[in-house]
Amino acid sequence: MTPFKIGPYSVGTGRLTVIAGPCLAESRDLCFQVAETLLSLAHEFDIDYVFKASFDKANRTSGGSVRGFGMEAGLSILQEVKEKLNTPVTTDIHLPDQAAPVAQIADILQIPAFLCRQSDILESAAQTGKPVNVKKGQFLAPWDTKNIIEKLRDFDANGIMLCERGTSFGYNTLIVDFPGLETMRSYGVPVCFDATHSAQRPGGAGTSTGGVRESIPAMVRAALAVGIDALFLEVHPDPQNALSDSATQWPLARAREMFELIKRYSFA
Fold first, then answer.
1. In the chain, how many domains are there?
2. Fewer Cβ in 10 A, N or C end of the chain?
3. How far apart are CA 56 and CA 115, in angstroms?
4. Do 220 and 265 touch, CB atoms closer than 8 A?
5. 3-class DSSP state for residue 231?
6. How far is CA 258 from CA 126, 186, 220, 227, in A?
7. Residue span of the structural domain in which 138 resides
8. pLDDT tens-digit readout, 31-89
9. CA angle (261 as vertex; 204, 40 as ends), nearest 5
10. What predicted TM-score, i.e. pTM, was given to this entire model?
């Protein structure tokens, strides 16, 4: 295992890190509401916490779906959360030229699943010197991720993490291969489990992605039992009215329930 740092936290040393926040940085107030609540719970339960929010949702089911309010506005919110709450932050990049400006603020760069094999974006992320969290494509088997790791190592990445977010299996359905977590971890990098995206039903709502929110706790328990280094969750105070991933974001009002579950089943 090759550990790395996200801000003050060490990942891959036996202690769980929770990466969580709203799917989209819808507003400053929403981001602070979520970040403050989750950070308080993380301190209470002694869990390392990294705030996450996207400034752009470039992969949407419909061309009419809300994408975001731009990189400048989104990064401004992330920077304020980071500085005022003293917590590490992360967000995803969609183009190689986004890596450098995002790395000025984000403590770890996230590569979206559909872009996980794109060499240019992997190289640009690695060259920033920040660790890189790569979402495993829904179209990949766990052992295919070894090639991603080798690319990033060739690009001298300063920290690599793989993230499981479900595998396409039939129409509008994702399946999680939990033994696959061990396969990915066997390549010597920390592994993250994205519980909320794994509950999605891509395109299952016609012009948007559906999902089964109530399956999330069971999948979290399973991933923790197998052994993971980080847990990724999207959390929103009003999921039904969220501008993206409304079917699978975890309700902020139930965040304590989730942290209790994490503490109960985590081996960290």
1. 1
2. N
3. 14
4. yes
5. strand
6. 32, 28, 9, 17
7. 4-265
8. 999 999 999 999 999 999 999 999 986 554 444 444 567 899 999 999 999 999 999 99
9. 100
10. 0.93
CA atoms of 121 and 239, how far apart (whole Å): 31
> What CATH number is associated with residue 187?
3.20.20.70
DSSP string, 53-99: -BS-----SSTTS---S-HHHHHHHHHHHHHHHT--EEEE--SGGGH
Q: For residues 106 and 88, what is the distance between their CA atoms, to the nearest angstrom?
A: 7
Res 142 pLDDT > 50: yes
* 90 Cβ contact list (under 8 Å, min separation 6): 6, 19, 50, 51, 52, 106, 107, 108, 109, 110, 133
* CA distance linking residue 193 with residue 212, whole number of Å: 17
Distances (CA, A) of 253 to 133, 196, 236, 250: 28, 16, 9, 9
Between the two ends of the chain, the Cα-to-Cα distance in Å is: 15
Burial class for 169, CB neighbours closer than 10 Å (0-12, 13-18, 19+):
exposed
